[in-house]
Design goal:
mainly alpha; 196 residues
């Protein structure tokens, strides 16, 4: 059932440099946010969510773009798996990567700034699911494009704009509604994007 997800984790484990680069980004961003928080503690939570958006941009390359670059996208399409399932497994993989790195970011921020964001875990999980779906969709949408290095970040920022207000207000209910509606729309469009 989770063939694509397991394959993605195996590939990710082999790419130690990318893992190290990603963890370095989390560590460095935590240090920078902690330094900025000396001026104002109000900057920590919005900065944390900006880091999550950047993590989604970075992890978008581990989704459909990597399949395209390694020429395995065609084999993936030939598997007896419905495109919905492929898209959902890629989104789940991205979601798990973002969750792991986001929790590390929370831990480092607690260590470096003595401010705990752990009370915001529910909204972080909801937003991580939203941004993972957006990241996978953006990756699938532009995987054939030569300008995907520019297009993916632009698409992720554009798709993130509608949830910024409820996210920064910590409005969990509205964020859940928007996450469900956008995720359902992207999942329903995924078979058309994944076709040749």
């Amino acid at each position: 059932m989770f063939e694509v997800l397991i394959k993605d984790f195996r590939v990710e484990i082999r790419r130690r440099f990318e893992i190290l680069a990603s963890l370095s980004f989390v560590l460095i961003s935590s240090l920078l946010i902690a330094q900025a928080s000396l001026i104002s503690k109000d900057i920590i939570l919005p900065s944390f969510f900006i880091v999550i958006i950047f993590l989604a941009v970075f992890t978008s390359t581990t989704s459909f773009v990597r399949e395209m670059d390694s020429k395995t996208i065609y084999g993936l399409k030939l598997l007896p798996i419905h495109p919905y399932k492929i898209f959902l497994e890629k989104s789940l993989f991205t979601f798990l990567l973002i969750l792991f790195q986001g929790f590390l970011e929370m831990f480092f921020l607690a260590v470096f700034s003595s401010v705990s964001l752990f009370e915001h875990i529910p909204i972080f999980i909801i937003f991580s699911f939203y941004i993972a779906t957006v990241s996978s969709f953006s990756s699938a949408l532009v995987m054939y494009s030569e300008g995907r290095g520019f297009l993916i970040p632009m698409l992720i920022f554009i798709f993130t704009y509608p949830v910024l207000a409820p996210l920064l207000r910590l409005d969990t209910f509205t964020l859940i509604l928007e996450t469900l509606s956008v995720s359902l729309a992207m999942v329903s469009l995924s078979p058309y994007i994944l076709e040749d």
